[in-house]
Task: inverse folding
């Protein structure tokens, strides 16, 4: 079965084609363009998606080696996301489905992330614990089976990726600079300063990053020279605290239940220090530790096509009246 | 103009909750202040006071959050935008409704594109202590009732907040 996936929920316009769970093609275009001032110029949302989606769809079909006629279904992100942005992808998906008389399936963007490690580890089986960490989301999800999820913890303030990006701004690295922190932190001294760990010593599985972000801001107000003299040390200490803020609630959750695996996904899952520390903790608890390849960490349409394909196998599809939902909840959510 | 001192995030949230009683449908609140100054915490106080039981998180990446309170809150964030055109493309007009409250973090960027500003709230780090914040609240826009700001000041006084 060949499924076309379309993703337009936020900054990325993406299309992908998979056949029986194997990737045939994947095209992603981000709207963040670097300018000569070291900052970024966002060309955001609906209009950018509108302009980018048609050529991206063409490219995804070209690179897949199949024709549009061979596609059996279209899966598209229904939410959560910006409503204007979502509607562009959904309109395209419905048009293709209507013209070709094939099913359209609305997919939850977060559900796509939860399963994105399946392409690296095809034997990924529930029950597993998923740590979804990106610029917009930070949550722990108990995956009981496909379509049955329980959000057991989430951030109370900032997302983890947001904390990385904002600390990068505080340190003069521009926006979005979160990914640079890992590289610069490598030569830093982790004993330079002790930043607070979010939700340290508390119960439950929620996360918090705003106190850490504010602690970095406060530290820099008092020690402005550290931005130049101790940047690597500062970033190293921030990263250690941020990683610990993710690890502590995750480990509490891991110990509470008999999971088969710990899976990370989302843009921050590309952080090697986080992967290393989570890997160590998973080994200690005795569960497998799985993560997606780089192209599946950040927003993409492969994961959307995959969830659409699984839902189709279960006989689920949506009608042409399906629309976008800014606050679309995960399906089959268990309390 | 109201200038007060918040002793930390809990008090900033309480100040937000107190302000919530002065928000009506069709009203917009501009929040200004550096990273970590307390803008999101302030919105957490407002939303919780208006009956929202979910978690209010920063909309920096997602740009817009909607809380189904009474009145409905649209929580916007302009931090990562560089031009007002970006918010036009997100559909800023969609969030200026007569029956909902619009709250905007990093509001300077779109100051000229919102018609219904009622309050402007500025957050500054206090001079010495870690958690102290100086909060300045101004009633702005073309509004009828001059007693509203005075009433807010009285409500904040009864909360026990230090007036500067």
Result:
């Amino acid at each position: 079965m060949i499924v076309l996936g379309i993703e337009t929920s936020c900054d990325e316009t993406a299309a992908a084609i998979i056949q029986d769970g194997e990737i045939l093609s994947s095209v992603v275009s981000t709207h963040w363009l670097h300018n000569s001032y070291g900052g970024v110029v966002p060309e955001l949302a609906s209009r950018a998606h509108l302009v980018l989606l048609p050529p991206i769809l063409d490219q995804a079909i070209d690179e897949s080696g199949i024709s549009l006629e061979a596609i059996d279904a279209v899966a598209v992100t229904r939410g959560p996301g910006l409503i204007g942005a979502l509607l562009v992808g959904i309109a395209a998906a419905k048009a293709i489905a209507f013209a070709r008389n094939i099913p359209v399936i609305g997919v939850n963007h977060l559900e796509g992330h939860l399963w994105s490690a399946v392409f690296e580890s095809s034997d990924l089986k529930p029950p597993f614990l998923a740590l979804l960490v990106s610029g917009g989301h930070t949550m722990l999800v108990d995956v009981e089976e496909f379509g049955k999820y329980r959000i057991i913890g989430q951030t109370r303030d900032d997302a983890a990726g947001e904390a990385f990006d904002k600390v990068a701004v505080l340190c003069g690295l521009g926006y979005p600079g979160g990914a640079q922190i890992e590289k610069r932190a490598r030569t830093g001294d982790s004993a330079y300063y002790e930043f607070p760990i979010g939700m340290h010593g508390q119960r439950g599985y929620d996360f918090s990053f705003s106190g850490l972000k504010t602690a970095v801001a406060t530290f820099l107000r008092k020690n402005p020279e550290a931005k130049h003299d101790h940047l690597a040390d500062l970033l190293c200490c921030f990263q250690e605290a941020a990683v610990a803020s993710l690890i502590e609630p995750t480990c509490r959750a891991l110990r509470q239940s008999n999971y088969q695996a710990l899976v990370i996904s989302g843009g921050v899952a590309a952080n090697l220090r986080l992967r290393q520390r989570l890997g160590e903790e998973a080994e200690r608890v005795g569960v497998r530790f799985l993560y997606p390849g780089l192209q599946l960490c950040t927003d993409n349409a492969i994961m959307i096509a995959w969830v659409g394909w699984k839902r189709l196998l279960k006989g689920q599809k949506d009608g042409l009246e399906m629309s976008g939902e800014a606050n679309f909840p995960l399906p089959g959510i268990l309390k | 103009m109201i200038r007060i001192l918040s002793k930390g995030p809990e008090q900033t949230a309480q100040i937000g909750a107190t302000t919530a009683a002065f928000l009506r449908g069709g009203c917009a609140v501009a929040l200004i202040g550096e990273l970590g100054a307390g803008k999101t915490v302030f919105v957490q106080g407002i939303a919780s006071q208006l009956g929202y039981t979910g978690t209010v998180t920063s909309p920096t990446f997602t740009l817009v959050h909607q809380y189904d309170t009474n009145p409905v809150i649209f929580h916007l964030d302009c931090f990562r935008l560089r031009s007002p055109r970006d918010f036009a493309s997100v559909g800023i007009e969609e969030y200026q409704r007569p029956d909902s409250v619009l709250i905007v973090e990093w509001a300077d960027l779109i100051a000229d594109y919102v018609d219904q500003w009622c309050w402007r709230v500025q957050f500054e780090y206090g001079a010495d202590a870690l958690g102290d914040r100086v909060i300045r609240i101004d009633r702005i826009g073309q509004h009828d009732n001059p007693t509203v700001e005075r009433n807010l000041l009285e409500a904040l006084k009864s909360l026990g907040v230090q007036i500067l």
Notes: The helical segments of chain B are 9-20, 39-49, 84-90, 147-159. Residues 2-163 of chain B form a domain with the Rossmann fold fold (CATH 3.40.50.300). The interface with chain A takes residues 9, 34-36, 40-41, 44, 55, 57-58, 60-64, 66, 80-83, 86, 89-91, 94, 125, 130 of chain B (CB under 8 Å).
